[in-house]
Amino acid sequence: MDRRIRKSQEAIIEAFIQLIAEKNFEQITINEIAERANVSRGTVYSHYTDKYDLLDQCIRTHFVKLIDSCLPCGEQALFPTEAALHYTFRYLDEHASFYAAALANQGVPAFRNRLQAVLIRGFDKQMDMGGINKMMDKGILVQFLAVAMTGMIEQLVTRATPYSATELSGQLWALMERNQMVPPSAPLSISTKLF
Amino acid sequence: MDRRIRKSQEAIIEAFIQLIAEKNFEQITINEIAERANVSRGTVYSHYTDKYDLLDQCIRTHFVKLIDSCLPCGEQALFPTEAALHYTFRYLDEHASFYAAALANQGVPAFRNRLQAVLIRGFDKQMDMGGINKMMDKGILVQFLAVAMTGMIEQLVTRATPYSATELSGQLWALMERNQMVPPSAPLSISTKLF
DNA sequence: CAGATTCTGTACAATACTGAACACATTCCG
DNA sequence: CGGAATGTGTTCAGTATTGTACAGAATCTG
After folding, report:
1. Residue A105 pLDDT exceeds 70
2. How many domains does chain A have?
3. A178 interfacial to chain B (CB closer than 8 Å)
């Protein structure tokens, strides 16, 4: 992609995220965004049809980062290690103002739904239905955990919890393990056990 | 000026200053600068004929800032107040790495000369040759003070002095006063004395 | 030494950005 | 109410930047 496009888009998104952290989405104007991004107004329109499109793509961009932070080991699993979960929560904590806005603004419930969908898909792959889960319905269990995780994330980014990102992720890791939400064992874990 | 020009130049100069703070001027390549500035190599050449031109314009840019910091009250005087001198020294302290490089690199003695020239011109205007200076040669006195100031600035930015910017500027202000290097009295200072 | 690599400076067509203008909608305010 | 101000979305010609290519200089390296 042309370097100019990359630079402009980054500047616009950065400006937009700054603004959304400062004021309500509806009050933000294209003029403000262009000014803050140090870009011509026409440039904004050349990339995004309007504010809502910008917000949408912005969420998408953040989502990529968020998902990446859940999947540090290639494409293997959501939160393959406790450290990975910690990292994700710290990332969310740092960008809380954006995520809070994305979650809070009515008209953007899409965000919560997308996050849940990703988590449900990921958890479904990793759930161990043996042991204490033998008598459970997998769909319900997965949904239960995904909704819980989404809710806790919402608590974190909206500052609705007194607990820190670290405390939360630590506790949540324990709860995931308790429910046998284990990441698929890596190939080398077997050979590791042999020695 | 076209916004693109401003943005590119700022990025290039910023990148260059970063690099000069990290390594020797001669080791810096145009490629590095372009890469760091996130700009095409051709763009660098469209604004600056080569590294040396870039350094030159860079010094010029910094010089404008530096002079501005000496002249906070319009165009009246160099260091019209002790606070102004303090501000200048703090500014120098913050950008020490750049100024150190500009002063240190042989091939750039121009910098020291320019600084001295500015100071000499400014001091010459402000020198009070009455009182203890009655028997002195003005040219020598002015040059003496300008060279001293330049030297002290060099000491500061090259970290060749254990004293802080604040300590130095405080002492230097006293020395300037002692030598009757007073800023031209503002019109209202007379009326101030009347009350 | 020769070959490989990197840097330099220049040229160019393709392209993204610019600022200005425009008609229209919305909001603000006396 | 009415008009002043501000925002929207579009168009457009002009311009700065882009990536690429090139030849020659400089530097590295076996």
Report:
1. no
2. 2
3. no
Q: How far apart are CA A57 and CA A45, in angstroms?
A: 13
Name the closest nucleotide to A47, judged by C1' and CA. C16
**Spacing of A45 CA from C28 C1' in Å:** 26
Overall pTM > 0.85? no
DSSP state of A107: T
Strand C at less than 7 A from CB of B31: yes
Query: How confident is the model over A124-181, as pLDDT tens digits?
Result: 888 889 888 888 888 888 888 888 988 898 888 888 899 999 999 988 888 888 888 8
**Distance between CA atoms of residues B26 and B95, nearest Å:** 20
Looking at the fold, whether A150 and A94 belong to one and the same domain comes out as: yes
Contact list in A for residue B7 (CB cut-off 8 A) is: 38
> Which structural domain range is residue B9 located in?
1-48
Span A28-43, pLDDT tens digits: 999 999 999 999 999 9
Contact by Cβ (8 Å): B30, B47: no
Q: Alpha helices of chain A — where are they, by DSSP H?
A: 3-22, 30-37, 41-47, 51-70, 82-94, 96-104, 110-126, 138-157, 165-178, 187-194
Q: Could you tell me if A87 and A167 lie in one domain?
A: yes
B31/D11 CA-to-C1' distance in Å: 38
Task: Please state, in angstroms and rounded to a whole number, the distance separating the CA atoms of residues A110 and A59.
Answer: 10
CA distance A2 to B101: 34
